[in-house]
Amino acid sequence: MKPIEPFYFLKHNNVTYNATSLMQSYFPIIGSDALAVYDYFVAFYDNGQKQHKFSDILNHLQFGMHRLEVALDILTALDLIVFYETDSAYLIKLHSALPTELFLENPVYRKLLEKKIGEVAVEQLICQLPFNAKNISKSFSEVFSEVGELKKTPKKAKNFFDLANFKQLMSKDGLSFNNETDDVIGLYHFAEQFGYNWFETYQIAKETAVNYKISLKRMQTKKQSSPKVENKPDFSKEEQVVIKEAKADNAEVFLAKIKKMRHATITATERKILSELADMGFLDEVINVMVLYTMSKTNSANLNKTYIMMIANDFSYQNISSVEQAVIKMRSFAEKKNHTQKEKTKQQKSNVPKWSNDSYKNETTEDEQAKLEEMKRRHLEKLRKKED
Fold first, then answer.
1. Does the global pTM surpass 0.70?
2. What's the CA gap between 31 and 273, in Å, rounded?
3. Is there a contact between 21 and 100 (Cβ–Cβ < 8 Å)?
4. Tens digit of pLDDT for each residue in 104-141?
5. CATH number of 6-122
6. Most exposed residue of 54, 94, 333, 342, measured as fewest CB within 10 angstroms of its CB?
7. Cα–Cα–Cα angle for 268, 274, 280, nearest 5°?
8. Which string of DSSP letters, residue by residue, matches 328-370?
9. Boundaries of each Replicative helicase loading/DNA remodeling protein DnaB N-terminal winged helix domain copy (predicted)?
10. Does residue 2 carry a pLDDT above 70?
C-alpha cells in the first residue's frame, strides 16, 4: 500500500459517531493515531462519490505511512472499519463504535481496557441497576402478532375513576355529597391510595354513608380498621355475642332493638347523637358497642348523651376503629372500675368505735386518765347545778 494509491468509501454507509464510547472505551486501547484516522474517515465520508488517496490522509493528519498502516490495522482489529482491496482501489467500510455497555460485555475488549486503565477504572464505567429494579420491557411476542403486525393493546389511564357512573349509582341509591368538590377529590385520592376502581370505591362509600351522605372519614376508618386486635385475646361468650350483634345492624336499628326491650322508641335527639358519632368517623359497629355500654350503665330507657360522648372522646383518642377493639376497651373500663371500687372499700373508715374491738389496747397514761376523770367530774357538777 502506497500513499499515491486510491481508496473509496463504501456507498450507503453513514454511521453514528459515538464520541462518548470512543473516548471512554476505545481510546485507551487504540491510541490517538487510530482515533484520528477514524475521525478523518467519518468527517470526509462522501457516500463513495469520488476517489481519494492515502496521501490526503497523511497530509491532513501530519504523520507518515507507517503510522497510517498501524492505525488501519488497529481499527480493523477493533471492528471500527472494514478494509477491502479490489483490482483498482481500496474500499473503506465504517462501523459505529459500540456503546460502552456492549463494549464491556465483550470479554476480550474488557480485558484490553483493564490492562490500559485498571480494573477499578473499568468498574466505574459499568452501568449498574439498583438492586430492586424490575425489568418491565415487553417481549417480541407481546408487541407483535404472529404475522408481524403490532398488537392493538391501548393502555388505559392509570386508576381511571369513572365519576359519571359513580354519581349514577349515587342517584339510584339516594346518596349525596356533603361538598361535591372536596368529596370528589377525596374519593379519587382514596381510590388511588388503596388501589380501588370506581365501583369498589362506591361500595365502601355506600356502606359507610351517614344519613345517605358520603363520609370520607368513615371510608378511611373502614379501610384502616382491622378485625384483629393485638395479641389475639380470647373473648368470652358474652363478648362474642356483642361482637356478632354489633356487626349485624346499623346504629339506628341496633338502638331500636334495645329501646324495644325497654318499651321505648328512638327520639329525634338520639338520632342526632348517632349522626354526631358517625360524623366523628366511627363505624356503626363501634357506635353499637358504645350504645350498648351506655344503655346498660345508665339504667335508662333513653340514650345519655353526656355519658356516650365521654366514651366517644376516649375512643377517638385511643384510635378505636373496630368492634373488637371497642369490646376490649369496654372490658378495660369495667376492670378499672371494679379495681377502684375495691380500693375505696378498703379505705372507708368504720363507724364502730375502736374500743369496741376485742383486740383494742388502751394505751392512755395515768396522768391522762386523771385529767379525763377531772373533766368528767366538772362536767357532771355543771349538769347538777342546772337541774337545781
1. no
2. 87
3. yes
4. 999 899 999 999 999 999 999 988 777 777 888 888 88
5. 1.10.10
6. 342
7. 140
8. HHHHHHHHHHHHHHHHHHHHPPPSS-GGGSTT------HHHHH
9. 1-225
10. yes
